[in-house]
Description:
The protein is about 65% helix and about 5% strand.
Amino acid sequence: MAVARxxxxxxxxxxxxxxxxxxxxxxxxxxxxxxxxxxxxxDQVRASAFAYPLGIPTPLIGLLFYxxxxxxxxxxxxxxxxxxxAPGRALALVAVAGAAAAMILTGLEAFVIRAFCxxxxxxxxxxxxxxxASIRLALAESAASPEAQSSRVRQQAARALESERTxxxxxxxxxxxxxxxAVGALLAMGATGAGPTASPGASTLAPAGSPRLGTxxxxxxxxxxxxxxxxxxxxxxxxxxxxxxSMTLVYxxxxxxxxxxxxxxxxxxxxxADRQGSFWKMDAALYARQDAWKDLSATEVDAFFLALAxxxxxxAARWQADYGSSGVEGVVNTDREAATGMGLNGTxxxxxxxxxxxxxxxxxxxxxxxxGATSSP
Length: 377
């Protein structure tokens, strides 16, 4: 019975971890603000470079891990080895890897990002419970000696194992269903708490002086941060759609300088380039070289952006004067205050046809929203 409880505990931990991962993955893919019990920590973690290792959303990695862990828990009901390893030991190895990754991420949140994501902490807790249960299960598996058991004892064990198999399948089914409902409810709460989706007014949402790209009938306003990896991934998609005249892209500065040390400087670099009619050239260059400048010191990043302005063919002296001017700083601050006033707390955030977009941040998703939008006034 003790072994049965350990398997159930491990399976429940895997289900909880998978549910938290699935919820976060939907948030990452849609950009939709969610329920975060640690204040703005979830958005800060999502906006950090650590949220997309090798361009892969961390929740996707977590979801695959917990699904694999749940499958391995069920495999421990069989004596057949997994890749030559006893099932209990295989589960323990999987759990060790997951717990180590969770602790690394928690450490990054504590000491580098300095913000905690509620659902990342849930995942970390689930990984530790899974680890404890799997280690005890592996020890129990090693201590068992079927060869020394009588035929009657082995038959009783087989019947107990079949009963446990049925119980675990029921736990997986019920737990999966409840997790799906919980994830849906949390997403609904996040969407409700995001505030109204209607535009606060065309002049407020897209002032006349904001950089524009394309001449399409539907206006798409993007609040973005040049140091945000999600914005970098979305940039070529928006540029392609604007280039095909499917829409008119309007850029608004929303540097998240509380978590991105060079966000404000990069926004000023683009705003200074805009004064020479080269905003979109600087926009593309900043995103393309994001890894090269995001971790530089303040002095180093100033020099980097000055050299970049020269490479793009701008008047470097004029750009440098604008880069440090109160006028450019005012443009960036005006956009940031507008975003804050609308209740925005993450990037990228899109408004399509005057309404906030909460669908998938993919070419197909945005294209569908554009097709269904009313032309901007």
